[in-house]
Design brief:
This protein is α/β, with parallel strands linked by helices and about 270 residues long. The protein contains 10 helices and 9 strands. α1 runs antiparallel to α8 (about 180-190) and α6 (about 135-145) crosses α8 (about 180-190).
């Protein structure tokens, strides 16, 4: 009888299916997985999302928030106040430069958990799809939280966009995967002994590009093309992208998001 893989293995295998074929990767001049800082800038820090509301429910004045995979602190900055201190962890040095956080820690989670210490609330936005070994990652979030953990992800893989799928199909005749999804993430979290609450919602992209050329250049990089293909890429980008409030975004459609949260039991006296 064939053994059915556990949720953690299914998650790991699904992420592995996103690997770019070697013959395409060999032609890339830049890292196709690199993410520009501008994509993480929160232009409206006063805009409170369902994820922020779940975090605020467990925050008291003068509390500390730990933001894992912080980027530009879009998950944590709207929580101050009532939070008094933000500790930001990120594996990309560029994300932590000029960070609005009070304390920044460069490194991968949960490796740097001892440096980060514990916080009243731990938040983690748009990181899970970058984590192949998910169980120790989420248990590390729980261990660092005194009251609650709040995780935000897209409902499907963040590179599963119509624009990117069109580019891969046009230039390389390559179809991209459909998995994993938020449901796969929840299955792993539950398998780790955590019972998360889940809220599904939609929102416009927080960040964006100041010019169409910047967006097209990044899209060209993600599909392993040389700069000489910019005009071809730009034509396809124009079929999908939109300009909103002076920023170019990858799609006019709102992003489908999922918020997962769970409370941490108080220690037994």
């Amino acid at each position: 009888m064939t053994q059915v893989p556990d949720a953690a293995t299914r998650w790991k295998d699904a992420l592995a299916s996103w690997a770019i074929p070697d013959w395409i990767l060999a032609q890339a001049r830049e890292d196709p997985w690199a993410l520009p800082v501008t994509l993480f800038e929160n232009k409206r820090p006063d805009n409170i999302s369902p994820s922020h509301r779940r975090a605020l429910e467990s925050l008291t004045p003068a509390a500390t928030v730990l933001d894992v995979g912080a980027g530009r602190c879009a998950m944590s900055l709207p929580l101050r106040p009532p939070a008094q201190r933000i500790v930001a962890v990120d594996s990309a040095r560029a994300m932590l430069e000029n960070s609005p956080a009070d304390i920044t820690i460069l490194g991968r989670w949960p490796d740097v958990a001892p440096q980060a210490g514990r916080a009243s609330v731990v938040v983690c936005g748009h990181v899970l799809y970058n984590v192949a070994d998910l169980p120790p990652f989420v248990t590390g979030l729980t261990d660092a939280a005194e009251r609650r953990v709040v995780v935000e992800i897209t409902q499907s893989h963040p590179r599963n966009r119509a624009l990117e799928r069109a580019l891969w199909r046009h230039f390389w005749n390559l179809e991209r995967p459909e998995v994993p999804t938020w449901e796969d993430a929840v299955a792993v979290v539950r398998e780790a002994g955590i019972k998360p609450e889940v809220e599904l919602w939609e929102s416009q992209q927080r960040g964006g590009f100041e010019s169409l050329e910047e967006l097209a250049s990044w899209m060209r990089q993600t599909v392993c093309l040389t700069p000489g293909r910019d005009e071809e890429v730009r034509a396809i980008v124009l079929e999908h992208a939109t300009e909103v409030d002076g920023l170019w975004r990858l799609s006019p459609e709102p992003r489908a998001l999922a918020t997962l949260w769970w409370d941490v039991p108080s220690p037994t006296p």
